[in-house]
Structures are given as structure tokens and as C-alpha cells.
Amino acid sequence: MNRIEVNVITGEQTTIPLTEEEIAELPWPTPPPPPSYVAFWDALIASSVYASIRTQSMASLPMNTLATEFIALIGDAKAGRANEAAIQASMSAVFSTGTFTEDDAAEFTAALAAGSLTDIYSLT
Q1: pLDDT single digits (tens) 107-119
Q2: Mean pLDDT of 84-102
Q3: Residues near 94 by beta carbon (within 8 Å), at least 6 away in sequence
Q4: 13-17 and 2-6 strand pairing
Q5: Using the 8-state DSSP alphabet, how is residue 98 labeled?
């Protein structure tokens, strides 16, 4: 890495290499936390949206099937085998089949955020 010094009178530019100490002092961006399906799951099962999914699953075979698939996919993801396309499709199917409030959607999105998954999945 280099820095450029400019003589303000002559406009002459000089390239000077940075020292290791100068490089170490640079404000490096903090990398985002890695996705955590365990943190997502822990937040989800503690939420009222999960209770709503369970309640609707007991009353509807299609909802039960979709919820079971979603739970299985998240189990695979927690074991290190995330199928992002299938999880997104499953999540979308659960929310399009069931009846959910804006608060439910907000809680689900908060659970995604707890697992650092909002850059991967969405409800829209």
C-alpha cells in the first residue's frame, strides 16, 4: 500500500510506501457476522410467529406439510448443509399459504436478523 504526497506549491506528486505500522492503524471495515441458522432457529421458536405456524399446521394439512419441509431444511442448514434456494422457496410458501399479521412478518424478519440471514432471505 502506498500514500501519495502532493506538493501544494508545485503540484508534484510522490508515492511513498506505507509502513507496516501505518497499515495496521488503517480503519479496516469490520466483516459482517457469519450466518447462524442456530441463532435464527433459537429466535424463531421463541416467537409468536412460530406459535402461529404451529397452530395453523395443526389445522391444515398443506400448512403442516410446508412447515415440516421448512423445519427439515433449517435442520439441514444448522448441520452445515444450507440449501438457500429451497429455504427461500419454503419460507415463501409457508407465508403465502398461512395467515400472518404484519407483526408476524416483523418477528420473522427479526429472527432472520438474529441469525445474520437478512442478506440471504426475505419475505418478499
Answers
A1: 999 999 999 999 9
A2: 97
A3: 53, 63, 66, 67, 70
A4: antiparallel
A5: S
pTM to 2 decimal places? 0.77
pLDDT over threshold 90, residue 40 = yes
Instruction: Say what the pLDDT of residue 122 is.
Output: 95
Q: How confident is the model at residue 101 (pLDDT cuts 50, 70, 90)?
A: very high
As a whole number of angstroms, the distance between CA 55 and CA 36 comes to: 26
Q: Give me the helices (H) in 46-101, please.
A: 48-59, 61-78, 84-97
Give burial (CB, 10 Å; 0-12/13-18/19+) of 74: buried
CA 97 to chain centre: 23
Terminal Cα distance for the chain, rounded: 42
Match 441463532 to its residue by C-alpha cell: 39
Q: Is 4 left (phi over 0), alpha (psi -120 to 50) or beta?
A: beta
CB 58 within 8 A of CB 64: yes
Q: Using alpha carbons only, give the angle 89, 96, 107 rounded to the nearest 5 degrees.
A: 85
